[in-house]
Specification:
Layout (H helix, E strand, L loop, with lengths): L11 H6 L14 E2 L11 H10 L15 H15 L8 E4 L2 H12 L5 E6 L3 H10 L2 E6 L8 H7 L4 E7 L11 H14 L2 E5 L25 E6 L12 E4 L2 H14 L5 H13 L1 H21 L1 H4 L4 E6 L2 E5 L6 H12 L1 E2 L1 E2 L14 E5 L5 H12 L9
Parallel strand pairs: 1-11, 3-4, 3-5, 5-6, 6-7
Antiparallel strand pairs: 2-8, 7-8, 9-10, 10-13, 12-13
Helix pairs in contact: 2-9, 3-9, 4-5, 4-8, 10-13
């Protein structure tokens, strides 16, 4: 008999880190880790001071409200309203222990065993793992060369068992940003079928455009169809404090509350205090972080010609990620461990983000560049361009 955890695969990040075991890197050629979208630096000192002060409060060490601290829900509702030029109420906000839990809570509140959710491929592996363990079918939606999902193709995947369509924008793993018109088309598709559109906006604060990602929240009764997920982890460099959010219909969040109360009771209070203070005070600092990420994105474009000359292709780049294809003989999942030993570069192969047996996974890698500065990006492209491995079709 198969348990829920046996129904899915091993976590990809720990699996990739095993490739580092026994490999020595010299001081003049250290490992360049492009495997994970985790800020390496701590929160800004001023936010660390706020958190240190919060530790002196007895309330920080107690259970909090299941759906989150009231002041954080209210502040996030105000910020969301300003950003989307729409009215969002505090009771449409739930605070979770990270954005992964936000998605898991939505799956629990929406789905039964045997239901399905449509999601584009390549997908974020933790979304797929969550559905596997819940007995929910992930219906893979193929994307085109521009890595954008097709609404008409999604329509063909919807069945009586479909509960939601899941999109991530800016996307993990590809970095691609979904145009507002495309998000609107998916919203209308979901509304026409009486299902939910879930948009994971974890990387929203690093979008290349200043305009909102979409205008869906301005739609009357938007919360009957739309569920938005958000994370403070990347924005305020507090991944270890596990603070995320769901923006959705208040009645739906009453169902989410059952799941959260059972799994964690509440999100960590310290992270919530930090997130609320950050929303009120760190907008200029966050704008600077966004500018730095956009500069690294520009550095990818500027340095990629030396790889393109060797047969590599840059399919997309944005927010934290780029999606590249390699020119070599062999599959990306087999070449990834060799990149560690031969180039001192750790990348995740596309097979970690795709259904088993998908041949398009053989050619691609995800590049998580958020923790690599301009010189590091230049160094990566030089190392990869120097590889003299056999080429495909040679």
């Amino acid at each position: 008999m198969t348990s829920w955890t046996q129904a899915t695969f091993a976590p990809p990040i720990p699996a990739a880190r095993k490739w580092l075991e026994g490999v020595e890197f010299s001081a003049d050629r250290p490992l360049i880790d492009l495997s994970q979208a985790v800020p390496a630096d701590p929160p800004p000192p001023v936010l660390q001071d706020v958190m240190a002060q919060a530790l002196t409060s007895p309330e920080t060490h107690l259970y909090g409200p299941v759906l989150g601290l009231p002041n954080l829900r209210q502040t996030l509702a105000q910020c969301w309203s300003r950003f989307y030029a729409a009215k969002v109420e505090a009771d449409q906000i739930a605070i979770t222990a990270g954005c992964n839990q936000a998605f898991a809570a939505c799956v629990a509140a929406l789905c039964s065993v045997g239901d399905n959710v449509v999601l584009p491929v390549p997908w974020y592996f933790n979304h797929k793992m969550c559905m596997d363990m819940a007995g929910v079918e992930a219906r893979p939606l193929s994307v085109g060369g521009d890595l954008l999902p097709d609404v008409n193709a999604a329509r063909q995947l919807i069945t009586a068992k479909t509960k939601a369509i899941l999109l991530i924008s800016p996307n993990n793993p590809t970095g691609v940003e979904y145009p507002p018109a495309l998000l609107r088309a998916f919203f209308e598709l979901a509304r026409a079928h009486g299902i939910k559109l879930i948009i994971d906006e974890t990387y929203r604060d690093f979008h290349s455009e200043h305009d909102p990602l979409h205008d869906l929240v301005q739609t009357p009764e938007w919360d009957q169809t739309l569920i938005q997920l958000y994370s403070f982890s990347k924005s305020f460099r507090m991944t270890g404090h596990r603070t995320g959010a769901i923006i959705a219909n208040a009645a739906f969040l009453s169902e989410v509350e059952k799941y959260l109360d059972t799994i964690t009771i509440c999100a960590p209070t310290l992270g919530q205090v930090a997130a609320e203070w950050g929303l009120r005070n760190l907008a200029p600092w966050l704008a600077q972080q966004r500018a730095e990420l956009l500069d690294r994105r520009a550095a990818i474009h500027e340095n990629f010609p030396r790889l393109r000359a060797q047969g590599w292709q840059l399919q997309s780049v944005g927010a934290y990620f780029a999606w590249v294809t390699h020119p070599f003989h062999g599959r990306a999942q087999d070449l990834a461990p060799k990149l560690v030993t031969d180039a001192g570069v750790l990348l995740l192969p596309a097979s970690m983000f795709m259904p088993e047996g998908d041949a398009s996974a053989d050619r691609a890698f995800r590049v998580a560049f958020a923790n690599v500065n301009r010189s590091g990006i230049e160094n990566v492209t030089k190392r990869l361009a120097s590889l003299d491995w056999p080429l495909a079709g040679a």
